[in-house]
Specification:
The chain is globular and about 50 Å long. The strands form 2 sheets. It has an 8-stranded parallel barrel, surrounded by 6 helices. It has a two-stranded antiparallel ribbon with strand order 2-3. Helices cover about 40% and strands about 15% of the residues.
C-alpha cells in the first residue's frame, strides 16, 4: 500500500520529469538575485530557543488547518512576536500551499524564509531561490546520496542555505557526511505514517555534531515541549499546526522561546 510519502514524492517526481525549463538558465537567474539572509545567524542569536514559525494551510493527515490564512499578515505577526525564521509550505496538491504564499510571506517578514516542500530536482532548488526563499528543504528520506550531495552543492551555488531533514541517527549521519549540512532538522513526524513521536528528537539529538545548527520539527505543542528540546541541545524548533490553529499566535509563539543551553 502506498504511503503519504510515496504519493507525494511520486507526484513531485512526475512534475520534475515534465519540467522542460533550462536548468542553466534557472541557475543563472537564481545566482543573479540579491543576497539571502543567513538562517544560521538568525537561529543561533541570543540565549533563547529560536522559533521557526510556519505558514501552513493544510496537511494530508489533518486536512484544512486555517480556512482564511493570510500569509503576509501571519508572517508579519510571527515577526512581531519574535520568530527567528518563517517556513512556508509551497506544495499545492497535498498541503494547499503555493509560491504565491511564499511571496506574500516574504513581503511581511524581513528575516530568513524556508521554502517547505519536497525537493526532488535541481530545478526545485533554483525555484526556492527564485520564489524569494533563503533556505531550501532537503529531506534525507526522499533523496539518495547523489541527490542529497548535488542539491546541497547547488543550494550553496545559488546562495541558499540547505536545511537537511532527518528522522533517525542514520539520516543525521547522511546529512552531515553526504550533504555537509550546517542546518539539520530532526522531524518527529514519521513521513510514512504521519504520526508524531515526541521522544524522537531527544533520542537523536546526541548524534548531531557540535557546530551544526540543530532544529527539532513537528510535535511541539507548548512550552513544556520547547523546554525539553532546548534541554536536549536544540537551537530551534519548527512549529506549524500549533501556531496556525492558535487563537493568539503572538502569545503562543512567545511562550516557546524558552532559555536554551549552548551545545
Amino acid at each position: 500500500m502506498a504511503t503519504y510519502l510515496d504519493d507525494i514524492l511520486a507526484a513531485h517526481r512526475r512534475a520534475a520529469d515534465d519540467d522542460t525549463r533550462s536548468l542553466s538558465r534557472l541557475i543563472e537567474q537564481a545566482t543573479a538575485m540579491a543576497p539571502t539572509v543567513s538562517a544560521a545567524d538568525a537561529l543561533t542569536a541570543g540565549d533563547r530557543l529560536a522559533v521557526i514559525a510556519e505558514v501552513k494551510r493544510a496537511s494530508p493527515s489533518k486536512g484544512e488547518l486555517h480556512a482564511n490564512l493570510d500569509p503576509k499578515r501571519l508572517a508579519a505577526t510571527y515577526g512581531e512576536a519574535g520568530a527567528a525564521m518563517v517556513s512556508v509550505l509551497t506544495d499545492e496538491a497535498f498541503f494547499r500551499g503555493s509560491a504565491a504564499d511564499l511571496a506574500a510571506a516574504r513581503s511581511g517578514f524581513a528575516g530568513p524564509i524556508l521554502r517547505k516542500d519536497f525537493t526532488v530536482s535541481p530545478a526545485d532548488v533554483c525555484d526556492a531561490r527564485l520564489m524569494g526563499a533563503d533556505v531550501v528543504l532537503l529531506i534525507a528520506a526522499a533523496l539518495d546520496d547523489a541527490e542529497l550531495a548535488d542539491f546541497a552543492a547547488l543550494a550553496t551555488e545559488v546562495g541558499l542555505s540547505a536545511l537537511v531533514e532527518a528522522h533517525d541517527e542514520t539520516e543525521v549521519e547522511r546529512a552531515v557526511e553526504v550533504a555537509g549540512a550546517s542546518l539539520v532538522g530532526v522531524n518527529q513526524r514519521d513521513l510514512v505514517t504521519f504520526q508524531v513521536d515526541t521522544a524522537r528528537a531527544v533520542r537523536v539529538a546526541a548524534t548531531i555534531p557540535d557546530g551544526v545548527v540543530a532544529i527539532a520539527e513537528s510535535g511541539v505543542t507548548g512550552p513544556a515541549d520547547a523546554r525539553r528540546l532546548a534541554d536536549a541541545g536544540y537551537h530551534a524548533v519548527l512549529v506549524g499546526e500549533h501556531l496556525v490553529t492558535s487563537a493568539d499566535p503572538t502569545a503562543t509563539l512567545a511562550a516557546l522561546a524558552v532559555p536554551r543551553h549552548a551545545r
